[in-house]
Amino acid sequence: MKFIRYAAFLLVASLLGLLLSCAARSGYRLPVAHPQIFELGEKREFCTKCHGYNKKPIDFERYNHTALFTESHRLVAYQDEGVCSICHAQSFCNNCHATRVELKPSLQDETGNYRRIQHRGDYLARHRIEGRIDPSSCFRCHGSPKSSKTCQSCHG
Amino acid sequence: MPLQLGRIAYVLFSLGLILLTSSVAPASEFRVVSDTILRTFERDAGNGKKLKAFPAYEYLQLDYGSLRDNGLSLHAYGWERVNLRDNYNKDDSEGELLYAYLQYVPPSRNYQVRAGRQYIFEGVARDSIDGIYGKAFLLPSVNVAAYAGYPTALESTDGLSGDLIYGGKITHSRPDLYDVGISYKYIANKDSRDEETLGSDLSVLFPRNVSLFGHSAYNLVNSGWGEHSYELRLPRGQFEVRPFFQHFRYDDYFNSRSNSANPFRFLQGTGNAMTVVGTEAYYYPAENWEFALRIKNYDYDKRFGTSQFYTLLTIWKWKILSEVGAELGRMQGHEAENRYFLTRGYVYWNLAKGFVTSDVMYVNYDEAIYKKNGALFASIGGGSKFFNDTLSVKLSFDYSNDAYFDEDFRTMLKISYLLDKTFTSRPKKD
Lengths: 156, 430
Hints:
The structure holds 2 protein chains of 2 kinds. Chain A has helices at 2-21, 48-51, 69-72, 74-79, 81-87, 90-93, 105-108, 123-133, 135-142, 149-155. Chain A is mainly alpha-helical. The radius of gyration of chain A is 20 Å and the shape is globular. In chain B, β5 and β6 form a beta hairpin. Chains A and B meet through α1, α4, α5, α6 and α8 of A and β1, β3, β4, β5 and β6 of B.
């Protein structure tokens, strides 16, 4: 019964949202895609370089790609994934966040050394230590039956 | 498992659908991004023999429709691996369709709908689904997202019959003040409730540009908090300090049901909890210099004593995309088996028609792993772009000597191709 209740609630909420959205004409809406700018290229970028430090309509400062951004972007991404998707297609996120990928992210972009991508070098050995110290960080990307296939040859 | 016929049919159906409706969009764009990766390496067969491996990967992304503006669009991405003339993983191939969905965004951009296989990032949901997703703005400051479908991660556990995922998120935002979001997710496998989570996301902007970010997740199956993660950002001129706090209760964060996986299943019954307190700190003395520091302290209710992790990173840039970086790290586990030193240096030099790059990493373990006290990894690579940057070729050579790979040499060639065409349906004006 609880299941039906939740499902009904969500269905109604979604339909209501879609209907009312027609009336919600005001307010800033994110663009579908970032304009093509040659300089953006592949490098790690600070959004404030162009967008400045104004907090409206978006607080771009929070999305600055710092040197440790690869490991610590999740809290800002949780706020609104839509901002990330202006510049990054799902395929970019799927390097790590995916149901099933075989090549580790650092191999998919082996020459992208400036990105400080996870699992570089001896990580197969080092993951024994980091997995014991903080298994929560492994679980986020390897926690499902399909995404853990790379773990199963040793862990069963 | 190779791509299934059903999935291919699904993609073709979607492609056909969008071709039929393409006349709606004034300008349709067709984009193909292809990454072909060829790797060579050797593996020890255990009997003194070496096996040569030559796997080839293809990562293919297709996008069609209104890609830069509102309208209808199709997006698909997947990968496939085959082994070429090797005797390692013989007759084995793998692949996965990671997403294939139709998206519609109206001119007002007041809502967005997607149908098909897609990855959902909404609060507590970081899941791939075969289903529908919608996001709508109820009011200028309130938006609601909802999704429902099959959880693709459960495909391998007795098929998809009786499987279900649904959930959503409601967010109230004041861009210069705060964002507050409440999210919900339900996953069932064979009609059995595997996961039900309620989550909250928070960001608050205080005076002097200070901000707070947070995420909490409540496990409705066990009735307990699984995670609290909060981070404060304190920018001050060229400095920024980001202290953070994270708390995970293993019984409520991990899962032992069919939607979990073996390395993590046993953690749920341990009754352990982990608290991580630490900070990141950044210093930018000039536009071309970056210093980053991360300190973490791990504390546990059960098992292990406290552990610490330190990382210091320095980057110097001399061109837009040319930089040198150096990193020092120390994992100071409570037991010797959980301690190591890490040093890493890299250079990335962007040239007129390409780049060269190199990376060297040395890790020293306090307690040997498989009789190895340390690990050395070195990589050198380079690449170039051709035909107005639509074709790029990257080549890299790697060397590893560590607990798992003894004197290991690997080669990798990556060929990336981008096709981007715009089709205009409106007649051109004279």
